[in-house]
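Two folds, back to back.
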Amino acid sequence: MDLSKYRKMAEELVAKMTVEEAAGQLTYEAPAIGRLGVPAYNWWNEALHGVARAGTATVFPQAIALAAAFDVPMLEKVADAIATEGRAKYNAFAAEEDRTIYKGLTYWSPNVNIFRDPRWGRGQETYGEDPYLTAELGKAFVRGLQGNGEHYKAVGCAKHFAVHSGPEALRHEFDAAANAKDMAETYLYAFEQLVRAGVGGVMGAYNRLNGAPCCAHPFLMQKLREWGFEGYFTSDCWALADFHLHHKVTSTAPESAAMAVKAGCDLNCGNVYLHVLAALQDGLVSEEDIRRCCVRLMTIRYALGMGQETEYDGIGYGEVESPAHLRLARRAAERSMVLLKNDGVLPMERKKYRGKTIAVIGPAAASEAVLYGNYCGTGSACVTILEGVRKAYPDAHILYAKGSHMYKESDEDVAAPADKLSEAVICAKRADVAVLCVGLDATMEGEEGCAPNFGDSGDKRSLELPPCQMQLVRAVLRTGTPTVIVQTSGSSIVTGGEEGAAAVLQAWYPGVLGGEAVARILRGKVCPSGKLPVTFYKGCGDLPAFTDYSMKNRTYAYYEGEPLFPFGYGLSYTSFAVRRAELRGGRVVAEVENTGGCDGETVLQVYRKIEHPLAERNVRLVGFCRVKVKKGESKRCKVALSPDLLRLVGEDGTPFAYTGTYTLFVTDGSGAAPVALACRAE
C-alpha cells in the first residue's frame, strides 16, 4: 500500500497536537483527543490463527499446523477470513464504544521467528524452522490480513525482531549471541521479506542481540531503513522496562524511554513511555523525536480508516464463526495433519468397522484444550477427537478411557498414581483397534507465564511426553491391539510408540473442528497430505545448548544426526512418483504421477545443494507447491523457485550470488528417492 496520502494526513494532524498529546499517543492505550476528533485506540491485539482474546471467533489450526500444509493460497484465505472477522468485531465493538484491549485492528501477528530449537514453547506460533518457508507463508498471511483495498483491512506485524526463540525463562535478561552469517542467512531473512512486501508493523524482541536490546538496536533499526520499512515499530510488552530492570543498559525509566524513542520505537506496549515527557524535560529526547513517532502511528490509523468511510464498514457480525469460515478451518486442519507412520491399518473405512469395537484412549481424546494452542479466540463449535470418531463411526461400538492425566501422576486429586491406566488397558484389550490420543496442550508448552504446568516457563525440558503419558503408551501397546497414535503438539515430541504403533498421525493443535478433521482422515474421507515444517528429533541429547544461537547442528539444513522424522516428511494413503523434472528459467517443471489406489494431494518440494565452503551442509528449500493428482493419473507441475536460489552469505553477513555447479533435488517428502537435477549458474 502507498502510505504517502495517509502520512500527509498524519503530519497535518500531529502538527495540531501539543507535545503532551503527541507523547500520549505513543502508548498502546492511546487516549482520545476530543478537540481533534481522535478516538481512543488500543493497539494491542492478536490474530495468530484467528481473532484472539476478544470472545467468539473461528479458531483455525495453530500457526505451526498451517505451516505443515505448505499451502500459500490457503493461508492467504485463512488470513483474509481472520481480517473479515476482525473487521466485523471491530465495527460492532466501536458501535458500542468499546475500544479496549483486543478490540482494535492492529494485529501482532505473524510470528516469523525461526523455530531453531524444539524445546522452545512458543515455536508453535511460528511457521517452522526454514527461512524460505517462513517468509513465503508470512507474506501470504500479511497479504490476506491487510488486503489490497484503499485502506488496510487489518494490519499485520512481523515479530519478534530479531534472533529470538527462547529460553522463555531468560528472555528479559538474555543476550543472544549470533554471528553475521547466521543472522543474514537464517534469523533476518523472513523479516526482510515481509518488510519488502509491505507489512504494516514490526515488533521488537525482549532479548538483547550481541549486547544491545532489540527494541532499540542500532543494527536492527538500520536494517529496517535499508529494507524500506514505512510502517510502525512497537516494543514487545514491557520489554522497554527490561532496559533498566534487567538488561542494565540504562538506569532509569526516562533513560529507557529516550533510548527507544530516539532509536525509532514508535509504540510502547507497557508503561515506560509514560516517562517520555520527563525525558523531554531532561533533554534526553527532542519534541521532533516524539512527533516523528506519532506521525508513523497516525499514518497507520489513517490507513485503517480513522475518521473516514471505508470499504469494510459494512462487514457485519454474522461473519464471526460463519459456516464458510468453519469449513475453511476444517479444510486447513485436514491439510495440515502429517501421517508419520502407517503399516496399513489406515484408512479405517467405516464399512470395515461396522459392528466392530474402537477404543478411543488418552488425555487428548476428549480435550478441547488440545484443539486450541496459544493466542486463540473462543470457539463455539468445538469437536474433540472423541466426538469426531463417534460421528465418523456410528455403526461401531466406541469405548473411551482417559488413561492418564496430561502431566500429573494421577488424574483424580486423591487417587493412587496411574489411577486411569487399567481402564485404558481394559478398553484396548476389548477393541479391534485403539486410537490413542496423547500429546501436549498450551498449558504445557507456550509463553512465559502462560504454560505453568510442565517444562520451564513454557519451554520443554525434554522431547518426551510426561511420564504418565509415556506409561500409558507402553501399556496400550503391550495389549497387542493395533494402535493408531494421534499426537497433539506444536513441536517435535517423542511418544515412545513410534516403533510399536501401527500408525502415527501428527495432528498439531488443529483448531475448533480438529476432532472432525482427525476422524475424516482416520476414516479415509480425506487423504493425509501435510508435511513436517520442523525436524522431529529422537531427543535433545545431540542438540546444542538451548542458549546457543549458532545454527551449527540445528534444523534440517545443519543437523548432523539422524532425525526421528525429517523436515518435509509426510506419508499418504496413496503414493506419488516424480517421473521427470527439468529446470526452465526460474521454475522446476516436473511430472508427478499418482501410483497408488486413491486420489490425493502432496507437496512437491525442491531443495538446493551447493558444494561450497560457505554452504557447509547447506541443503535449502527453494521451492514448493501443493498438487492434487487423481489415482492413475499424471500431472505436470510448475514449481516457482526462490529469487534467492543462488544466494550465499559470507562470514561477514554479506550476501553474494553463487556461480558454478549445483544440484536441485525434487521430492514429495514421502521418503522415496528424490529426482536430482545437475545445474550450472553462470
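---
second:
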Amino acid sequence: MKKTNTNSFRNKLIKKAKEDRNNIENIEKLKKKLENRKNKNFKKEVKKNKEEVDEKYGEITRRKRMKLWIFIVILIAILFIVRIGWIQFVMGDWLKEMALEQQSLDRTINPRRGTIYDATGTNILAVSSTVNTITVNPVNISKENKEKVAEALSNIFELEYDEVLKKVNKKTSIETIARKVEKEKADELRKWMSNNGIDVGINIDEDTKRYYPYNTLASQVIGFCGYDNQGLDGIEAIYEKELKGEKGRITKVTDAQGGEIENEGENYISAIDGNDLVLSIDLTIQGIAEKYLKEACIDNKCTDGGNIIIMNPKTGDILAMAGYPNYNLNEPYETTIEELKPNWENMSETDQIKEMQKLWRNKAVTDTYEPGSTFKLVTSSAALEEGITTTDKEGEFCCTGGITIAGVRISCWRYYRPHGSESLRQALMNSCNPVFIGLGQEIGVNKYYDYLEKFGLLRKTGIDLPGEAGSIFLKEDKVGPVELATISFGQRFEITPIQMITAVSTIANKGTYVKPRIVKKIINSTTGEIKDIPSEKTENVISKETAEGVLSMMGSVVAEGTGKNAQVQGYSIGGKTGTSEDGVNTGKYVTSFVGVAPVSDPEVVILITLYNPTGEGGHQGGGVAAPIGSQVLGEVLPYLEVQKEETEEISIQEEVNVPNIVGLTVKEAKDKLKEQNLDIKYEETEEDISDKKIISQVPIEGMKVNKGSKIIIECEK
C-alpha cells in the first residue's frame, strides 16, 4: 500500500516537473517570439526613421550644393570682372605698348649732345658731329642677296665677313652692323645699294659722335663720353642730364615676321638736342697753365706729376685747372705716357685700365696732400683776426732754431742758422716754423678749428666735378699741443688743392669765401634761354683789415722772401711757397707755390703743386714752384688786361704780340715766330710734321706774351 502511494507521488512530481518544463519552454518561446516581434518593429521604425532622415538630409544637401554652386559662379564672375578691369585700366597702356612693339620696328635717333664752350662762349671744347649708324632688317633681305649684302657691309666698314653674315641671316627684326660711321662711308654704302637695286633691309640712320677739338686740353676737367654718348667722367658725367638730350625714333609697321607692310610709311619722331654749357675755364689761360706745367714736370722730373689751378677770387671762377700727365679726350683709352707706348698692346686690359685711371684722375680735386708752409697764411689770418699779433711789430718773435712743445723739440727748417728777432711779416717771409707754432698755441685748438671751418677746410668745396675728396684732420678732441703745432705750419694733415686755393681766395677776396665755380651758364638748345649759375658766397670769414694785412705780407714774401722767383716785372705779386713730405718716411716731397696778383686788389689766385720733384733743382717750393708762378702769371696777367703797377718803362723786347699762324705749315710758322723770339709747342711725335698745316693755336692772335714763350699748336691729321 505504501509502495503504491510512493509511486503515485513520484509520478505526480514527474508530471509536475514536465509541466513546469513545458511552461518554461513556452515562456522562452514566448520571449523569443516577443523579441522577434519587437526587433521587427524596431527595424521597421529604424528604417522609417532612416528614410525620414535621409529625405531631410538630402534636402539640406541639395540646398547647400545649390548655394555652393551659386557662390562659385558669383565668385568666378567677380574674378572675371576684376581681371577685365585690371587688364583694361591697369595693364592697358603696357599691353598697348607691347602690341605696338610687336607690330612695329623702332630705330632710335641719338640727339646731338650739348656743346661745351670755354668762358668766352666762342671757343668750343666739346662738340657732337653728325655720323651714321648702320642697321639691317634680316627678314627684309632676300635669301639670294644675303651673302652679297654681308660681303658689301664687311668690305665697306672693314668688318669680319662671318660675323656680318651671321647677323644678316638671323631671324630677328633688326641688327646693328656699325656705329659712328663717317659720312664718306655712309655715302659709299648708299651708292652700292643704288647700283645693286637694294632699297629695303639696310638702314642708314643719323647719329652723333663726340669730338674734342683741342685733344688733351683740360681733359681731366671736361671728361669723355662712352660708346653710346653717355658722359663717363668730368663735366660730361656731372652734367649728363643737361647735355644728353632726348632720343628720337623712326617707327614703321611690320607683319608677324617683322617684314615691311606695303603702303605703310615710317613715323619720324625728332630727337631733342642736349643743352649747351659755358665753363669758367678760359681756353688761353688753360693752354698757358698746361704748357708751363708740362715743362716743369719734365724739367724737375716730377715722378707723380703735378697740377695748376688759377681762380678768380671775386667770382669763384676756375679759369684754369691743369693736370700732368693728361690724356687725349678723342682717344681716352690710349695712353699718352711715352714710356708705356712700346709695350701698350702687350699689357692686359686690367693693367691698361689701371694706367688710364691714373691719367683720368683730376688730382687737384680727388687727391689730398700736406700743404706745408703755404698753410701759414691760414695761421697768420687767424692770429691777426684774434688780435694776438700784428704784421710789423719789430722783435715780437725770436727764432732760436726750434721750439719745444709738450717735451717735443720741433726744429725750424733753418735750425743751423736761426732767424733770430722777427716780426710776423719777417717770419712769413722767412717761413719760420717756430713763430707759427707759437701762434697756433696761443690761438688754441677750439678757436683754430673754428677758423678751419670758416675757411672751408673741414668740408668739401662742392665744386661740380666728380670724385671730390674731403680733408683729413684729427678730430678736434684728439688734438694735443704737438698736433696743433704741426697743423700750424701745414703738416700732418691733408687737404685737396681745390680746398687750398679756395681758402687763399678768401683772403684775396678781402675775407669773403666764394665757392669755386666750373660751369657759368646753361643754354637751352630748344629755346636759347640762358640760365646763369650764380656765385655762392659766405661773408666775413675774416675782416677786410686782416685780409689786407695778410696780402701785404704775401707781397713781401715775393718781393724779398722765399718767393722771390715768382716776381713778374710790372706787377705786384704776392705769394707763399711750401714744401712738405708726401706721406711719412716715403722719401717723397710735395712742392708748391700759391700766389695772388695784383696784391692791392687780386684778380687771380694761382696754386702750383708738384709731386715728388727729383731733378737737379731739388724740391723746395721757392726754387722749383715759384718760377713757374712767374712764367704763368707773366702771360696770364697781360691776357686779362690787368694794369701794371710800376711806372718804369718796359722794354719792347720783353713782350710781344702773338701773330696768327693758323693755316701755315709748321715750318712756315716757326720761321714767322722766330722773328719775334717765339717758338712752337706741340705733342711730341716721331712723324715729320714740318709740312702739316696748323688748325689751332694757344694763345690766340693778338695776345701779349713774353719773348721766348712757346705757342701751343694743333696740326691737321
